[in-house]
Structures are given as C-alpha cells and as structure tokens.
Amino acid sequence: MVEKLDVIIFGASGFTGKHTVFEAISVLTNLKWGVAGRNRIKLEAILEDIGTKAGKNLMSIPIIVADVDDESSLLQMARRCHVLVNCVGPYRFYGEPVVRACIESGTHHVDVSGEPQYMETMQLKYDREAQEKNVYIVSACGFDSIPADMGMIFIEKNFDGVVNSVEAYLQSDVRGGPPNSAAIHYGTWESAVYGLAHADELRGIRSQLYTEKLPKFQPILKHRPLIFRSEIVNGICLPFPGSDRSVVMRSQRFLYEKEGKRPIQMHAYVVFRTWFIAVCAACFFVMFGMTAKFSFGRKILLKYPKFFSMGLISHEGPSESQMERTYFSLTMKALGWPKPERSSNSVKEFRDPPTKTLTVKISGINPGYGATCVALLCTAVIILKESDKMPGTGGVLSPGAAFAKTSLISELEKHEHGMKFEIFANK
C-alpha cells in the first residue's frame, strides 16, 4: 500500500506552484509532502531547479501525475494526501473538478483563488457535502485575502471592546534598483479578466447562497469618495478592486450566523503616492473593466497583456530580484466601543457614537509569490495540526471563518516570506 502524504502541491510546475515548492522546504518541515501536475518530466525539472536554488536534494519527493481533465487521476491524487494545495488556476475553469475530487476522497483543500464567483459557487454547491464528509475547502489563502481576513480576526482579538467598522488601506512599492518591466504573472491577469467579465453572476449566486441579508447596525460605514487623500496612510486612495471585502464579509456572515457575533462593516482601498498616479490607475481600472465586459475586449486583453497593463503583466512574470524588492503593508483602522460591563461582541445596538479606535498593520515582502505561497502552505499546516480548533466538522469556508480560533497568525509570522501582524495605534 502506497504511503499517504500529509500535503500534495498540485500544479507544482506552474509559476505559483514552483514558488510554493520552494517555500514548502521550510514551511512543511517534518511533514511528508509531494508534488503533482500533468507532466512528470516538468515536475522532475522543477524539483531539480528548486533543489539547486535551496541547496537541497529534492529528487526523492514523491511525484503524482494528475490532470484536471482526467477525473480518475484527480481522485487518485486526492486519495494520496490529507491536504491538497491547489495552485491550478484560473479556478473558475479548473477549480471545481479538484474540489469535487477532494470531497469525494475525504481530503482537505486549500487554494489561492481571488475569484469571488468561484469561491461562492463552491460554497453554494458543496458546503453541505463537505460538512458531511468532514472536509475543509478553504479558498483565498494567499495575498487574496489572508492579510485582510485574518487582519479582521487580529483586530477583534486586540480591540478590547466591540468593533463597528474597519477601513483597510493597501500599499505596495518596489524598493531599490530599477523596476522590472513585469511585476505580475499572466495567470493573475487572466483570472482578473474573466472575474470582471462575469461579475454580474455574483448577484444570482448570492441570492441563492444567502436567503437573508445581514442586519445593518448603526452607524453605517459610508463609502469614501471615488478618489481621496487619507491621512491614515498619507496617500491618495481608490476603492480596492480585489476580493478582500467579499471574502471578509463571508467570514463576518459566518461568525454572525454560527456564533451570534455582531458583523463588522468593512471597506477596502488601495493607496498611491500621488494624485497623478491615482488618476491614471482609476482610468486604467475603468478601461479594463469596460473592455473585459465584451468577448472581443477579453480576447485582446488576453492576447496583449503587456500592452494593456503598461508592461506590468507578462507570461514570464516578475524576476526574483523584483519579487524580493516588493514590499506590502495593509493598514486597518477599526472604530467601535470600549468593552461594555456585561457584554461580549454579541449582536446588539449601541446608543452612543463609537469612540474607540485601533489601527493595525499587516506587512511583508514579495506579496504575490512569496507571502502568498507561505500563507497557502501555512493554512495546510494548520488544518493538519489544529483541525480541532476549526468550526464544525468541515465545509466550504473563507479563511477568517476557518482559522479564527487557530494559531495561523503566529504560524505566518515564523517565516521569512510570511506576514507580520502588529498594533500600530490603540486609542
């Protein structure tokens, strides 16, 4: 009988996959892990290349051949491990067969999807079955959206009161040396194109997934202007177009429905250094969104990514130097009330305006392919070691819902490409 592995990294020969293999050397210490993908020769080459880079001999790492178009191979792969780390995207095209195979095999599944339609469709279709099979299916376990979702958990643990709302401000910059021509891999661009193209699907998915709306507690967190200067981060801000808010609100709904916790309102923004850069970014977001709505527009966006992204996107992705010089920080400012005499953070109204604030910062380097891969692997480690601290017996969950009571934040802080969670101001 073939020995069952703790973790298998599926899609290990892809761009995100190969960086996940590199981080696995340090994150999956003392665990049995393997790699999987369509092509054994490519997987052997990845193990050799990453082994050389890390100064380790990885040629004894088990290799499993599996293809998303071959259901039997997915089942065989899923049965070989306790947790499957899925790096094969875009997930709207390739994710569901892997999720289905994991649930049938009784294998936990984590991925780095930032695609709300995929994540919420999986919850709609498979949440009950995953619970029945005692399987955890957790998406958004990378830069989308561990900092924001676990940041909310970090805030609640340190607020010493009741949180009403949170504003999150994402900053990223490349330090030292000339900027590289490409900062993001094509796969991320492809996911964004199709995500925007089908954004209208979300309303229908959510109407089936959530039959009741979350209660609206006062005061309601108002949207900032489309473009504004924030004194919190000393920069020019736009609404953040990523999946952070949708993931966070899934977690807040879960905690409200399962634990009776007062849901926290949240808005997310992205920060730029100058008005000029922010206005250019706003124009790009509008152009990108409009073009992605049409079939012909999607074709040209996907065919000429460098042109339409002004050189930021390429099939080759960023260089090692570029990644290691890229820093990120997510500043989150919470507003609420001091701890009441007889209450926890339960569902209730407050008569007085909120006066207590807490500002936290989540930061790190190489967000796309360092912090993302470390976070993904850390979620697998936590499922293996602390499933008794996770809710229920399984389900299709967001990170905040799945890992709120675990030591995931501490695990993330252990690693070079992890994330640092710190209190910035407490008033």
Secondary-structure blueprint:
Elements: E1 5-10, H1 15-27, E2 33-37, H2 40-54, E3 63-65, H3 71-78, E4 81-86, H4 91-105, E5 108-111, H5 116-132, E6 136-138, H6 146-159, E7 161-174, E8 184-185, H7 186-197, H8 201-209, E9 228-230, E10 235-239, H9 244-259, E11 265-272, H10 275-292, H11 295-303, H12 305-308, E12 313-314, H13 320-324, E13 326-338, E14 356-365, H14 367-386, E15 395-397, H15 399-403, H16 408-413, E16 420-426
Parallel strand pairs: 1-2, 1-4, 2-3, 4-5, 5-6, 6-15, 7-11, 8-12
Antiparallel strand pairs: 7-13, 9-10, 10-11, 13-14, 14-16
Helix pairs in contact: 1-2, 1-14, 3-4, 4-5, 5-8, 6-9, 10-11
Q: Please, could you describe this protein's structure?
A:
- This protein is an alpha/beta fold and 427 residues long.
- It has two domains: 5-138, Rossmann fold, CATH 3.40.50.720; 145-366 and 409-424, Dihydrodipicolinate Reductase, domain 2, CATH 3.30.360.
- Helices cover 44% and strands 22% of the residues.
- It contains 16 helices and 16 strands.
- The strands form three sheets. A seven-stranded parallel β-sheet has the order 3-2-1-4-5-6-15, sandwiched between helices. Strands 9-10-11-7-13-14-16 form a seven-stranded mixed β-sheet. It has a two-stranded parallel ribbon with strand order 8-12.
- Helix 1 packs across helix 14 (367-386) and helix 4 (91-105) packs parallel to helix 5 (116-132).
- It is globular, with a radius of gyration of 21 Å.
- The termini are far apart.
